[in-house]
Specification:
Length: about 575
């Protein structure tokens, strides 16, 4: 912890727009005054942008305008000038072809929104899966003082007395319908029970994971991640964050002071302890790239290897975010990591103090939700990084969501060339497949889909499900929803659309998985693999124009975070020339 607060008062960047009596300053101030802001609001106090991903088409963030008002209260109380600014919002539930394709576009828009306007610090008002990483990426690239406030998870879902987890039960119910164990009518009735309140997915899916990652990175106030969206304490958190960002601007406490290599190591270990989403791998790699931190897949494996999954939440366990909050939330988990010697205790947080000071007094109120380590869901819960001739640059698997008996397996490949091929064949009883096979899905990576859709946990064939089998090994270059489960190998790099070995796997090839040895291989000689690769041709042409063209031309592999190559790095927040 080497941070030294800047001296205060000093002239802030917003004064380049608002401070002075020249024509340009009068122009900038005068137009703002049409909203009724008094003259002294422009006197050099910190201008705080509240970057709001509110949208009625991003249902998980639809309540964020209310929280923005609470943030504003906090900013005003601390002597700042709050301005609410809408930013690009991509809903996981409905953005096509996939919200992931727009994460980088959103990050780019956020970066320029901040850099080009009179802001001294920003509050990142986020919730749904991609909104959290995209705003963190944009904020990291501008490196102005920034604090994350998430919208919080939905209340528990219940269907006929049973907990229903967002996403997790959607996959379960849809497999049950295919297996003939649930009627379509019951499925429709269950739909209404899944989303009972405002907020993001209530499982330890990607939204809850990324909220936890923001907190573990030190970019949100302690305790932020788990507070339910409708709990009054969520509003308090928003207000306190509004107060805090003003002091962060005065101290000049920036993302680069908080998101150090030590902070990323803390987040990776926290991800293992909470049984977090595999999507965190891609997002943290991308965020690190924006701050200029050298974070790799090997860091994920190194840091996550010995972390036990102690948070008993779906999809790995049985509870939901509401219970995690009542049990004490992420501070309890971070305290456990610290006691086990797995936390960089000195890592700085947005509160201005070390992370250990934030969590050392946390109390676990429910040991069935946050388990003692001897009752952990898995002793080695971190994301495992696999390598071999099928994934030379790596692939990932979440052991806590996998079936233990499949973690070492050799099976015959059943290949789907893309998602349409999968959909066309999977329900056909003539498909030559059984539960010992390995399902292989190609062309669903960052370039291939495009956008790397969450289709890696492809549903099993009905004829296997009808035998009562609920898991098979699946391999792809896709992602998987954080709410999903199964022995699913993801992010295979290089991806098929980029000519990775995945592209040339054929029906009948034998695939060998050994998670303990971190190995994923196809039983082919080097000569045979090289021969097939020399004959490989991409499946589809690149789009000729538009954002899809930009994305496919510049997106990097999943193994480095799938950012656009020209957006990697921190470009800071120079004020630039006035245009008048
Ligand atoms: Fe938005 Fe899950 S779909 S958080």
């Amino acid at each position: 912890m080497t941070f030294k607060p800047a001296s205060w008062p000093r002239r802030l960047r917003s004064q380049e727009w608002f401070g002075g009596t020249g024509r340009d300053q009068i122009y900038h101030r005068g137009w703002m005054k049409n909203q009724g802001f008094p003259h002294d609001m422009f006197d050099g106090r910190p201008v705080i942008g509240i970057l709001n991903t509110w949208s009625e088409l991003t249902p998980c963030n639809a309540h964020l305008r209310d929280l923005a008002e609470r943030v504003k209260n906090g900013v005003l109380e601390a002597g700042g000038f709050p301005v609410e600014v809408p930013v690009f919002s991509a809903a996981e539930s409905s953005f096509r072809p996939t919200a992931m394709m727009y994460r980088n576009l959103a990050a780019l828009a956020v970066e320029e929104t901040v850099r080009g306007q009179p802001m001294d610090g920003v509050v990142l008002l986020v919730g749904c899966d991609k909104t959290t990483p995209s705003l963190l990426m944009g904020a990291a690239s501008t490196d102005l003082p920034s604090i994350v406030v998430t919208g919080g998870p939905m209340l528990n879902g219940y269907f006929r007395g049973e907990r229903v987890g967002s996403g997790t039960h959607l996959w379960k119910f849809s497999e049950a319908v295919k297996a003939g164990e649930m009627t379509q009518e019951d499925f429709l009735e269950a739909e209404a029970s899944m989303s009972r309140s405002p907020g993001s997915c209530n499982t330890m899916g990607t939204a809850s994971t990324m909220a936890s990652m923001a907190e573990a990175l030190g970019m949100a106030l302690s305790g932020n991640a788990a507070i339910p969206a409708v709990d009054s304490r969520r509003r308090v958190m928003a207000q306190m964050s509004g107060r805090r960002i003003v002091d962060m601007v005065k101290d000049d406490l920036k993302p680069s002071d908080v998101m150090t290599k030590q902070a990323f190591e803390n987040a990776i270990r926290a991800n293992g302890a909470i049984g977090g989403s595999t999507n965190a791998v891609i997002h943290l790699l991308a965020i690190a790239g924006r701050v200029g931190i050298d974070l790799t897949l090997d860091d994920w494996d190194r840091c996550g290897r010995d972390v036990a999954t102690i948070v008993n939440l779906m999809p790995s366990g049985k509870y939901l975010m509401e219970e995690f909050f009542y049990a004490g939330g992420l501070p309890v988990v971070l305290k456990r990591l610290g006691e086990a010697g797995l936390l960089n205790k000195d890592a700085m947080t947005v509160s201005g103090t070390a992370i250990w000071d934030e969590v050392k007094n946390a109390v676990n109120h429910n040991e069935d939700v946050i388990l003692p380590v001897e009752k952990a869901l898995t002793a080695q819960g971190g994301i495992a990084v696999l390598k071999g001739n099928l994934a030379p640059r790596g692939a990932v698997i979440k052991p806590s969501a996998a079936s233990p008996h499949l973690l070492k397996h050799r099976g015959r490949a059943v290949v789907f060339e893309d998602i349409d091929d999968y959909k066309a064949k999977i329900n056909d009883d003539a498909l030559d497949i059984d539960e010992t096979c390995v399902m292989v899905l190609k062309n669903c990576g960052p370039k291939g889909y495009p956008g790397m859709a969450e289709v890696g946990n492809m549903g099993l064939p009905p004829k296997v499900l009808k035998k009562g089998i609920t898991d098979m090994i699946r391999i792809s270059d896709a992602r998987m929803s954080g709410t999903a489960y199964g022995t699913v190998i993801l992010h295979t790099s290089p991806e098929a659309a980029d000519g990775g070995p995945l592209a040339v796997i054929e029906n009948g090839d034998m695939i060998e998985l050994d998670v303990a040895a971190r190995s994923i291989r196809v039983d082919l000689s080097d000569e045979e693999l090289a021969k097939r690769l020399s004959n490989w041709k991409p499946l589809a042409d690149k789009p000729a124009s538009g954002y899809a063209w930009l994305h496919q031309s510049h997106v990097r592999g999943a193994d480095t975070g799938a950012d656009l190559d020209f957006l990697i790095g921190c470009r800071g927040s120079p004020v630039g020339k006035d245009s008048h």
